[in-house]
Specification:
There is one protein chain. The protein is mostly helical. The protein has one domain. Helix content is about 80%, strand content about 0%. It contains 7 helices and no strands. It has helices at about 1-10, 10-20, 25-30, 30-40, 45-55, 55-70, 75-90. Helix 2 packs antiparallel against helix 4. The radius of gyration is 13 Å and the shape is globular. InterPro entries: CHCH_domain-containing_protein, CX9C. It comes from Pachyramphus minor. It holds the Pfam family CX9C. One of its GO terms (cellular component) is mitochondrial intermembrane space. This is CHCH5 protein.
Length: about 90
């Protein structure tokens, strides 16, 4: 999923990455619009849609963790790993 997103939505990912790097304390608010752009772009791909459907629970847990710990994304590593494991199986 990440590879497909990078391939098909590279410009969106680049803009989001620059925003996150520029706003380490407030990226979750400052970059929200850009994150939605990535999601919209990625959702156009059938495999990404399947991953979002099949891995909705681990993805929601990861996103919830990021919201609860906005200044410490590293705290959410276990949730990210669980989502990536799920996505790899799709």
């Amino acid at each position: 999923a990440l590879e497909l997103t990078a391939r098909h939505c590279g410009a969106e990912l680049e803009r989001y990455g620059r925003c996150v790097a520029a706003s380490p304390e407030s990226w979750h608010k400052d970059c929200h619009r850009l994150r939605l752009g990535i999601a919209q772009c990625a959702s156009a791909h059938p495999i990404v849609r399947q991953i979002r459907r099949d891995c909705a629970e681990p993805l929601a847990a990861f996103e919830r963790c990021l919201r609860e710990h906005p200044g410490s994304a590293r705290h959410c590593h276990p949730h990210a790993s669980a989502f990536l494991l799920c996505a790899d199986r799709v």
